[in-house]
């Protein structure tokens, strides 16, 4: 394995540090994967607590002869500037940089430009079909712990899960605020664009962030998708649901012979062995060092090498 430091968007207002990981000893151009983060500010390793999913994937895929490009998320590297510059949507937060990273890969002579794949995790998986349609034009998509539902729907369900797992006193104290948040999220689709742009949700985000994303739903892009797609889910994931998310993908893609599904019963949202099956213990879950197993990486690598 060889790693090279690169800059994604070097000529833009938001240059991002990144790493191109290349397999050593391979002759000719190799297939490659662009790694797209989940929600929130995140570095190139997608570090959360003591977990580094994107570093695990990059190193593991290189051992199978597959290159990858990972980079700091724009909100991680330039959060203050983005807030100062104004309105933020998933285009500015994620999509534009994924397309710039893809362009860098395709221009590298060591990469086979016809075999560039996108791997999205969590929100990155939600956005992957849209990134493809917006100009990514990937050879195939790999979705880890994603959902075809809207972000509002997922957040409402997560809030209810948190409420259900609180002790009775905390539940009583938090119930009103959670219901208020649910009401706000549920009302966003009915807001006008101008109203949504003015409605602050804190941390520089507005209701328009959700509204714009919901106006471009994953379901729509998935229905038009004809290229190979691999979907992976951890059975102990408490952030997205086997029933509401993984099975929803199956329902949408049930007639696609080039759609494959992999369920890992004992893995969590980061595809490492689960410790707690409890959303209230998310911080503790991610505070213990673990790594993505060879079975997950092998399954992804076999799928990539099999799609020529």
Keyphrases for this structure?
single chain, alpha/beta, 8-stranded mixed beta sheet, two-stranded antiparallel ribbon, 19% strand, globular
Characterization of the model:
With 308 residues, this protein is an alpha/beta fold. It has twelve helices and ten strands. The protein has an eight-stranded mixed sheet, sandwiched between helices. Helix 10 links the parallel strand 9 and strand 10. Helix 3 packs across helix 4 and helix 5 packs antiparallel against helix 6. The longest helix is centred in the middle third of the chain and has 20 residues. It starts with a strand and ends with a helix. The relative contact order is 0.14. The mean pLDDT is 92.
